[in-house]
Amino acid sequence: MSDQSKLRLASDIGGTFTDVAVFDEASGKLTFGKALSTPQRLVEGINNGVAKTGADYKDAGLFLHGSTIAINTILERKGAKTALIITKGFRDIYEIGRINRPDSYNLFFQKHEPLVERALRFEVNERVLADGEVEKPLDDKEIEALGDHLSSIGMEAVAILFLHCYRNADHEKRAKEILQKKHPNLFVSASHELSQEYREFERCSTAVANAYVGPKVDRYIGEIDEHLRGAGFKGSFLIVQSTGGLYAADQARQYCIRMLESGPAAGVIGTRTLCHTLGLKNAIAFDMGGTTAKAGVIHDGEPLTTGSALLGGYEKALPVQIAMMDIFEVGTGGGSIAKVEDGMLRVGPQSAGASPGPVCYGLGGTEPTVTDANLVLGRLSADRFLGGEMKLDVEGAKKALLKNIGTPLGMDAIASADGILRIAITAMSYAVKGVTTERGLDVGDYVLAAYGGAGPLHAVEVARELGMRRVIIPTAPGVFSAYGMLFSDLRYDFVRTWFTRLDDASFDAIEAVYKELEDEGRAAIDAAKVKPEEIAIRRAVDMRYVGQEHAVTVDVPMEVFQSKDRTAMKKHFDEQHEIRYGTNAPAERAEIVSLRTAVSGIMLKPPQEKIAAGGADPKAAFNGNRSVYYEAVGFVETPTYTRDKLLAGNKVTGPALIEEHASTTVLAPDDQLTVNAYGHLEIAVAGRK
Amino acid sequence: MATSTTAPKKKADPVVTEIIRNGVIAVTEEMKTNLMRTAYNTIIYEALDFTTGLFTAEGETISIGIGLPMFIRGMSETVKSKIRHFGIDNIVAGDILITNDSYTTGSHLNHVTLTMPIFHEGTLAAFSCCMAHWIDIGGVLGGVTTDIYSEGLQIPFLKLHRAGVVNQDLVDFIRMNVRVPTRALGDLRAQVTAVKTGERRFFQLLERYGREPVLAAVEAIMNHSEVGARARTLTIPDGVYEAESFMDDDGISIGKRVPIRVKVTVKGEEMTVDLTDVSNQVQGFYNSGITTGYACAQVAYKCLTSPTDYPINDGSFRSLNVIVPSGRVISAVRPAPMRWWMTFPMTIVDTIFKAMAKAIPDRTIAGHHADLIAAGFHGVNPKTKEFYFGNFGPLGGGWGAKMTEDGVSATVCINDGDTHNSASEMTEVKTPCVVESLRLVEDSGGAGQYRGGLGVERIVRARAPCVFSSQIERAHCKPWGLEGGDEATGNSIALRVDGKWKADFPNAKMVMATLKVGDAYLLRSGGGGGYGPAWERPAEKVAEDVRQGYVTPEAAADSYGVVIDPKSFAVDKAATDKKRAALKAARATA
Fold first, then answer.
1. How many whole angstroms separate alpha carbon B317 and alpha carbon B271?
2. pLDDT the model gives residue A467
3. Nearest Cα to B26, choosing from A286, A288, A438?
4. Half-sphere exposure for B475 (CA within 13 Å, toward CB)
5. Which residues of chain B make contact with A201, given a CB cutoff of 8 A?
6. What Cα–Cα distance (Å) separates residue A643 from each residue in A286, A652, B223, B298?
7. Closest CA to A562 of A542, A533, A537, A544
8. A38 touches chain B (CB under 8 A)
C-alpha cells in the first residue's frame, strides 16, 4: 500500500441502484454515492457511484464489492453450458431430489428444474464408502476420455460429485486435476471444495450451481479487476460472501457461489457494527426494499449464520449447502401490489418493481402498492421524495386505491390504504418472527435496526406489532449494505461431516480435522494479500441426541477442545437445545454429526464519527407540518424534520416524520426519538393502544 | 355432511380477516417447525409424517399443515370424538387429550394424536392439535397382522395433562409398552411442545384482535373457502360418473384382487362421492377407518376444486357429501388390522380422478404409482451391536400426465405431501448397507400425447446380515392412462441372492427375506399413466425424450411410433408416418 492509498471503497450492486461508500483512513471521513445500476455493463454503475463520492481509484488501498450477479444468473437461468460428473448409479439424484410435494393438493405441481439436463450428466466408475474406504478406485483414463468428450461438445463448466467425498476427497481431487490439466479453459467445480457435509443431493446442487455461474462470475470479476487496474488502483480487491465475510477476488472467481447473498449479508454486518458501537448485544437487522423485507439476527454481538439455503420458491427450490447469514425474507416491499381476490384483500408478493412502479410514480403503474398507501396517508411527501427529484401523484394513488380496493370492499381510499399497511406490517413481522421466535429466541430481547429505502417508514409499527421496545435507524439507511462492507473481515468457513458418539469421540482426531480445515483458512488469508490485524477462529459442532434426526449447531469455545472436556461439550449442547426448542434431555447421550469452523482475518475498522451536539429541542431541523393518518387516531397535524439538520441530543416526540434523501422515518403519537452521539435515531416505541 | 351457508353473525372486517388468515397459517407452520426439529425419528423429521392444526371449539378444521394430505379428516374427527367423550364442560385449560384409537383417527396405531383446548377469558375458543407417527408402538415385528391387538398399544381417550399436570401413570404405562421408550417419549415431548405452541400463538391472536373479531374472521375464511369450492363445482357438468380399479391382494389371499368402485354425482354446486361399492374390509392389514373413507373423497375434492386455497379448512368441504357404509376397507370396524392403512386410500383417490376425467378432462390426472414404496430392513449393526430399523423413507415414483402437460417423475405419492426421502449418504452412515444405484426408470412412464412421469429404482446391498420386508401394492393394477394414453409400469421388487436376481414374485409384498452380506434388494416404483394417444405426441418431443434417456429408441418406435436414430436422435419421418398409421389402425381394431 502506497502512502496515498488511504481510501477504502465499497460498492454494492443491487437491482435498481449501485451504492458506494468510501472511507478515508487519513481523515476518518465517510462519503456515500448512489447511482442507477447499469445491467448491460455493471462496472459503469460503479464508476458513476464512485464519481458521486469524488473518490479516485488511485487513492484506494481496498476495493470491496458485493453483487447479485451469481444469484441472478441462477434465477434467470443464464449460466454456462454445464455438465455433471457423478458416481456410477447416481446420475439421476440431481433430478430426483427430495421427492416432496409442498403444494400437496395441486395436481399441476412441478418439481425443481435441474441446471444440468439429464443428457449432460455422466456417471463414472468409482465408489467410496461411508467410512472413506475406496470400494472402486477411480479410473484416470475414463476421466480423460470424458474430459475430451465434454470439450468436444462445447461444455464451458463441469461439476463433480462423488459420494462420501467429505470422508475421502481423493477421487474428486484427482478427477478435477485431470480435467484441468488437459482442458485449462473448462471451469471445474468439485463438491468437496464447497461443502464437506453429507447429503448428496444438496451438495450436488451446490457444486452444479457453482459451475453454472462460474464462467460468468469469473469474467465479471476479471472485467472489474481490469477496469480498476486500468484506473490506477493498486490495492486489494475483495468480495463480500453470503456470510458477510470478505474473500479475495481470485478466490471468488473459483468459489463463486459463496457470494450469492453478499448485499443482504453486508447489511447485517453493518448492524453488527452498530451494535458494537452502541454496546448492544442483540439486534434484528431489518431491511425493507421495493420487493421484499428481510430480517437477520445479531445475537450476543455476532450474526447468526446457517449452513444451507434454498434458491427460488420453496416448491421448486434448488438447495445450496454453504455457510450463509441466516436471513428470513417475506415478499413485502414498497412496491408490493395490493388487490382484492375473491373478496379477500391481499398484499404482495407480486411487486410493481421500479417499472412501472407504484401508481404515484406516474410511470404507468395502475395497481396500488404499499408506497401508494404511504403517500395517501401523508407518510410520504409528494414533493420531497428522493430529495424532491421525483414528484409523486397523490390523486392518482387515491383513485387506484378506491377503484381496486375500496369499491370492491366497501371502504374509502383512506381505510383501504390503512388496511394495506396493517396487512403489510403483520406480514413483515413474520420475517422477524422467522429468525427469532422460530429459533427459540425472545424477540422482546432485541432492538430493531431498520434500513433499506422503506425500512424506516415501517420499523416502528413492525416493532410495536412484535412487542419490541426499541428501534434504531442508522445514518444513511439507504446505502447501509455498502456501509456495512467497510466493517467486514476476511472470513473462510469450513464444515466437515464427522460422525461419532460423543462418548467415543477422539479429541485428537477431531483436533486433526480442525487443524486441516483451519490451516486451509490461514493459507487462504495469506493468499488474499491483505494484512489483517489478527486471526480469529470460531468453532462450532453440529450435535444431536442419539436417535434424534435433526442436529443443532452449537458454538463451542476453544477451551473445551483444549481441555478435551466431553462434559462441557455436552452441556453446551443441552443448553443450546433448550434455547432453540424449549426442551432438552441432559440424561441422554449425544452424538456429533459435523465439525464447523470459521477462520477470520480481522481488519482494522473505520472509527465511528460523532456528529455535532445540540440541545433537546430539534427546532433547527423543523421544516413544516402536514396531515398524517395513524391507525389508532386518524389524521393528525404532524411536524416534519430534516434529518441532516438534526443534532446529537435532539429529542422528538411523535407524531413526527424525519425526512432524508431516500427515506422517511415515521413516529406515531407517543413514540420518543433521541438522536444519539453518532447521529443514529434511537426510538423508544410506545405501547399499543 | 353438506351444510348450507350460514350468514355470519357479524360482518368480518376484511383487513382483520386477511391478518388472521396469515396468522393461522403462521401458527400452524410454527407448530410444525417445533415438532419437526425436536422429534426423535426419521419418519417425523425427514418424512414429515405428521399433521398440526387449529380447530374451532366444535372441532372443525380452521387450518392444518401440509405434512400428510390423507390425514385431512383424521384430526378434526379425533377432536370431535374427544369432545363427545369427555363432554365439553369437562375439558379445562391446560388439559392435553391423547389417543391413538385407529377407528377414530382412521389410521394405524403409530399415529398418536394430542389435542389442547385454547381458552380465552375463561371461554373455550378453539383447539390446537397434532398427530405424529411414532417409529414403534409395540405389537408384532414384521409379517402381516390380522387384527388390531397384534399391532401394538391402543391408547383410549385419556388426559395426558390434567389442567397442566402430567399424568405420570399414563406416561409410565406407555413407556413399558414400546420397544424404544426414549424415542417414543422424546416424540411425545415434541408433540406436547407443538400443541402448546399452537395454544400460545392462537391465544396471542385473540388477545391482539379480540375474541369476536378473530372468530368472525375464522368464519369468514371458512365461508370464503366454501364459496370458492361451490363455484368450482358448479363448473362441472351435472351427472353421475363412475370408475373402477383393483388392488393386488390383501397380503393373505395372495392374488385375489380387491375391487375399488366409486360413484360420483354432481348436481349444481354440490358433489356426492359414494364409496358403497368399495371392497369390504379385508383380512390383512390394509384397512382404514371411516374417517379415512371421508378423507379419500375430501382429498380428491380439494384437488379438483380448490387445490391452492390456504389455509386448508373445512369450509372447502361443505359442498361435498360422502357416502361410506360401515365395514368397507376404508370404513373398517374393530378388530380389523390397520397397520398399512395408507395404501388402499391412495388408489381410491386416483379412481375418483378417473371417474371425473370425462366430466373435467382439463382438471384431472392419469393414474400414479400410488404407494409409499417404503420397504425397510432391520438387523443388528455389527459396529454398534445395536438393533436398527433401516429405511430410506418413501421412494417416490411417477405421476400421471394431464390434458395439457407431462406427468412429474420421482415424486412422493398422494398420501404424502411435503415428505422427503433420506439421503443415501446418511443411511449408509447409520446402517450397514450400500446403495448401488438410485435412478429414474426409462420407459416407466405411460406413453401418450402427454407422457406419464418416470418411476424410481433403488438397489441396496447388505453389508451385514439383515431381514428385508415390503408391503408394496399395485404391482399388477398398473397406473392407468386417460383418453387413450397408455398405462405405466407397476411397482415391483427383486432380490439378489448369491449374485442372482429373482423377481418372479406373485406381488410386491415380501413378508420377510433374510439377506446375507453382498445380497441386495431392489425397489422400483411405477410411472404415471399417459394422456391422449401416443401417436399424437410431436415426434420432436419423443426425440428429446430419447436424447435425455427418459424413453429408449425401442420404446419410441413401439409405443410412440417414432423412429429415431439412436446416435444422432434424428427422426426418420417416412418410417415414423408409417409406424404411426399402423399404431392407430391397430388401436382402432382393438
1. 10
2. 92
3. A438
4. 25
5. 423
6. 20, 12, 49, 58
7. A537
8. no
Beta bridge partners of B125: none
Note whether A413 and A406 are within 8 A (CB). Answer: yes
Give residue-wise pLDDT tens across range A99-139.
999 899 999 999 999 999 999 999 999 999 999 999 999 99
Let me know: does B459 contact B88? Beta carbons within 8 Å: no
The model's pLDDT over B78-102, given as tens digits with 9 standing for 90+, comes to: 999 999 999 999 999 999 999 999 9
What's the rounded Cα separation, in Å, for the pair B252 and B589? 39
Q: How confident is the model at residue B49 (pLDDT cuts 50, 70, 90)?
A: confident
Cβ distance of A433 and B436 shorter than 8 Å: no
How large a percentage of chain B has pLDDT more than 70? 97
Does the pLDDT at position B1 exceed 60? no
Query: CB–CB of A429/A466 below 8 Å?
Result: yes
Q: What is the pTM of this model?
A: 0.94
> What is the residue-averaged pLDDT of chain A?
93
SS3 category, A641: strand
Rounded CA-CA distance B539/B534 in Å is 10
**Residue of B413, B559, B397, B565 lying closest to B487 (CA atoms):** B559
| Distance between CA atoms of residues A139 and A118, nearest Å | 23
Give CA–CA dist A62/B562, Å, rounded.
62
ipTM for this model: 0.94
Summarize the confidence of residues B222-242 as an average pLDDT: 97
- Name the residue among B80, B112, B82, B77 with its Cα closest to residue B95: B82
Q: How far apart are CA A576 and CA A555, in angstroms?
A: 9
List the domains of chain A with CATH numbers: 7-74+234-259 (3.30.420.40), 78-218 (3.40.1360), 261-484 (3.30.420), 490-602 (3.30.1490), 619-684 (no CATH)
Any idea what DSSP says for residue A299? E
Which residue, chain included where needed, has cell 387384527? B147
Distance (Å) of CA A398 to CA A324, A374, A643? 42, 11, 28
User: Over the stretch A153-185, which tens digit does the pLDDT of each residue have?
Assistant: 999 999 999 999 999 999 999 999 999 999 999
| Residue of chain B whose alpha carbon sits nearest to that of A419 | B15
Domain map of chain B by residue range? Answer: 14-224, 365-532, 535-589
**Residues 631-660 of chain A whose Cβ lies under 8 A from any Cβ of chain B:** none
- Report how far residue B222's alpha carbon sits from residue B199's, in angstroms, rounded to the nearest whole number: 20
The more confident residue out of B500 and A348 is B500
Interchain pair B308, A105: CB under 8 A: yes
Spell out which residues of chain B touch residue A409, defining contact as CB-CB under 8 Å: 14
